[in-house]
Design goal:
- This protein has about 60 residues and is mostly loops.
- About 15% of the residues lie in helices and about 0% in strands.
- The termini are far apart.
């Protein structure tokens, strides 16, 4: 039985960063990743609007 060597692959991960500074919304995340051994790039930053919760009223 041969041992297979896992080759590194790229993955796209989507984060929702809540309550962040609108002038630099990824600052904390970027700092954490830079201080790690993770090879990363920020592809796109989009504003996320949380959907309004709908409540069902019962009589």
């Amino acid at each position: 039985m041969q041992n297979k060597v896992n080759q590194p692959k790229s993955y796209k991960i989507i984060f929702i960063l809540k309550d962040v500074n609108p002038k630099d919304p990824t600052e904390d995340l970027r700092t954490i990743l830079r201080n790690s051994d993770v090879n990363f790039e920020i592809e796109k930053i989009e504003r996320y609007f949380e959907p309004k919760t709908k409540t069902i009223k019962s009589n």
